[in-house]
Structures are given as C-alpha cells and as structure tokens.
C-alpha cells in the first residue's frame, strides 16, 4: 500500500488513543519509516509517556519522535530540515477551546480562540504543505483528517466551520501542488474514541447515533484501523491519480438521509446502553 523503506511523517500524536498512533503503527507494519510529531515535550510527558500500558515502553523507545507546535512556523520549518526526503505527511491535528468554540451556544466573543482554532485545525495544513515540499522533490502525498461537513452537528460549532475550510484547503492545495507531483487528500472519519473527541461536549455519544445512520457497523475503537488503512492507501502508489478528494471512512453514514429503518440496521451484539464510551452527561445528540 505504501512504499516500504520510505519516510512518512505522522503529525499529531498525543497518546495511545490518537488516530495518529494507529496510522503510524500501521505505516510501520507496512514497512514505512515513520517520524511522529508531538506538540511539545510537556504534552509528551503528560499523555504519551503515560500510555505505557497500551504503548509498551520498549515500543515507545523505538519511535522516532519530534516536537512540532504548528502555531510556530519556525518549528514546521525545522521539522522538515531534519527528516530527510519524505514520501508522505499525515496531518492529524485539530484544536478548539471547548469553553468558547464548542458547546451549546454557537456564538462566542472569544475571537482569538476562533482564530487559534482556525490556525491549528486548518491553516497549519497549508503551512505543512508549504514546508514539506522541500523534502518531497520526487513528489508524494499529504493527508489530513476531517469530520462530516455535509451536515451541521450540535456542539461542534466552530470546529465544523474549520473542517469545512480544511476541506476547501485540500482542494486548493491539490491544485497548487499537482505540478510538484504532490497529492493532497482528506479522510473524513466517523466518530472515534480519542482525547480530542472527549473534549467535545456530547460528542462521545455520536457513535451511538452513528449506529442508527451508518449502513455498515461502526466501532469507535476498532475502526481506527480502517481509517489508517485508507490513509495508507492515499499515501501510496495505488492512489497515484487521486488528489483534492475527501474520502469518507464512516460506515456510509454521510450518505444516508434520515435514520435507517429498523430492518436496515446492523444487529449490534451489545445493547446501546452497554457502550463503555458513552458520555452519560448532557442531552442526546440527534442528527
Ligand atoms: N476522534 C474523532 O472522532 C475524529 C473524527 C474525524 C476526524 N478527526 C480528526 O482527527 C484528527 C486527530 O484527532 P484525534 O481524534 O486523534 O485526537 P487527538 O487528541 O489524539 O489528536 C489531536 C492532536 O492535535 C494536536 N495539536 C493540538 N494543537 C496543536 C498544535 N498547536 N501544534 C501541534 N499539534 C497540536 C494534539 O497535541 C493532538 O496530538 C483531528 O484533526 C480530528 O479533528 C477525529
């Protein structure tokens, strides 16, 4: 799926729940050399170093980890000065202040928070493309992660707006970097258990709703690997003529109108209420 022996930079590793972790691990299994980025040393010590039960210390010690805060352009420049030639970059980064940019009320006067969220969750992908180009002389692929922008979700507020901008950015970057033989795509994932997701009020129960709209069964933990497989496909030679696309890995939920009829639904082996990831606070989301 990818080119064994080549270098892939996976940005946005926080802990064992991160989509970046599952992607990076998959790329390593497929023979890629993976450079992970973590936001900063403090984040690493608080989150990654404490993932020790699910990322054994022996495995952690083998990772090629770099620090890169995408709010600081100089750190992005420095990252690509140190990686050597790169075949692909995965941007698995987003942030919005949950107190101002997410929640029950869409409007906020915290304009600086909106700007920060836009910079981290969208603009940074352009900055990564700008600087990664210098180490992709033979072309390559850039992939980012998005969440369904065809509908408006409660609580997701400004992140939904920034994801829509990110998808427009994917198309703009695809147009710009075709001449460099660099492809630019996004994977739109269904809800997955992670720290970023847990910060979105009520977001954890989205997966419960997903069960009523997704024709295929959807699992917030196990299906991270399906997202990782699509990322690997978009990074590798089998997608050589694919660029500017948003590929949905969401069980098909994004194409379904309304909710599935009872006879159309996958019969989940456990009752909905038994789900360990469910957030028991706040109103139920309806999509
Ligand atoms: N979890 C989901 O349900 C879901 C669904 C669709 C898309 N996504 C997207 O997947 C991506 C990864 O999210 P995740 O769910 O794995 O959560 P996560 O919390 O594990 O990852 C988010 C990452 O963004 C990083 N980050 C935030 N600010 C940064 C900055 N200034 N500089 C550098 N890094 C910074 C965090 O350190 C963290 O590593 C995000 O873009 C998210 O929107 C997630």
Layout of SSEs?
Layout: E1 7-11, H1 19-29, E2 33-38, H2 41-46, H3 57-62, E3 64-67, H4 73-82, E4 88-91, H5 111-132, E5 140-146, H6 157-177, E6 182-189, H7 195-198, H8 206-213, H9 224-235, E7 246-249
Parallel strand pairs: 1-2, 1-4, 2-3, 4-5, 5-6, 6-7
Helix pairs in contact: 1-9, 4-5, 5-6
The structure holds nicotinamide-adenine-dinucleotide.
Please indicate the percent range of residues in DSSP E strands (runs of 2 or more).
5-15%
Tally of alpha and pi helices: 9
Strand sequence of the main sheet, in spatial order?
3-2-1-4-5-6-7
CATH topology descriptor: Rossmann fold
- CATH level 4 superfamily: NAD(P)-binding Rossmann-like Domain
CATH architecture annotation name: 3-Layer(aba) Sandwich
- SSE run: EHEHHEHEHEHEHHHE
CATH class: Alpha Beta
How would you portray this structure in words?
- This protein is an alpha/beta fold and 287 residues long.
- It has helices spanning 19-29, 41-46, 57-62, 73-82, 111-132, 157-177, 195-198, 206-213, 224-235, and strands at residues 7-11, 33-38, 64-67, 88-91, 140-146, 182-189, 246-249.
- It has a single domain, classed as 3-Layer(aba) Sandwich (Rossmann fold).
- A seven-stranded parallel β-sheet has the order 3-2-1-4-5-6-7, with helices on both faces.
- Helix 1 crosses helix 9 and helix 4 (73-82) packs parallel to helix 5 (111-132).
- The protein is globular, with a radius of gyration of 18 Å.
- The two termini are 35 Å apart.
- The model is unreliable at 272-287 (pLDDT under 50).
- Nicotinamide-adenine-dinucleotide binds at residues 12-14, 17-20, 39, 43, 68-71, 92-95, 120, 145-147, 189, 191-192, 194-197.
